[in-house]
From TrEMBL:
It comes from Candidatus Finniella inopinata. Keywords: Membrane, Transmembrane, Transmembrane helix. The chain crosses the membrane at residues 20-37. This is Septum formation initiator family protein. It holds the Pfam family DivIC. The keyword Transmembrane applies. The keyword Transmembrane helix applies. InterPro entries: FtsL/DivIC.
Length: 120
């Protein structure tokens, strides 16, 4: 063997060792870049969460307005502040009462929106 062959053989592990650091750094960079976007707490998961929050806020506002309407109706039916018109309206709706001189016109859309109480 000549000295040329021996020196190139000893330089190969050094070349491999000098490439190992940047290669490891590149692998770590790729790993973290992937998880920034695809991870459990990545960018796309964050976007899905923001969309879900927006949908839930719309649902919340709808439910809050329905609750306010129901609270107003309940307030009108309290014994200390009983509204006779509200009481008559609820009694007619729930008990299906009408005066003999009244004409009743059924509206299917209104019946479906009223809560069914006592019906099974």
């Amino acid at each position: 063997m000549t000295t040329l062959e021996t020196s190139s053989f000893t330089n190969q592990p050094r070349r491999l060792g000098s490439m190992l650091g940047p290669l490891l750094g590149l692998c770590l960079l790729i790993y973290f870049a992937y998880h920034i976007f695809q991870g459990e707490r990545g960018f796309f998961a964050w976007m899905r969460l923001q969309k879900k929050i927006a949908e839930d806020e719309i649902t919340l506002s709808t439910l809050q307005s329905q609750r306010e309407i129901l609270e107003r109706q309940v307030h009108l039916l309290r014994p200390d502040n009983l509204d006779p018109d509200m009481l008559e309206e609820r009694a007619r709706l729930i008990l299906n009462f009408a005066r003999p001189d009244e004409v009743i016109i059924y509206n299917e859309g209104l019946e479906a929106s009223e809560p069914s109480q006592g019906k099974s």
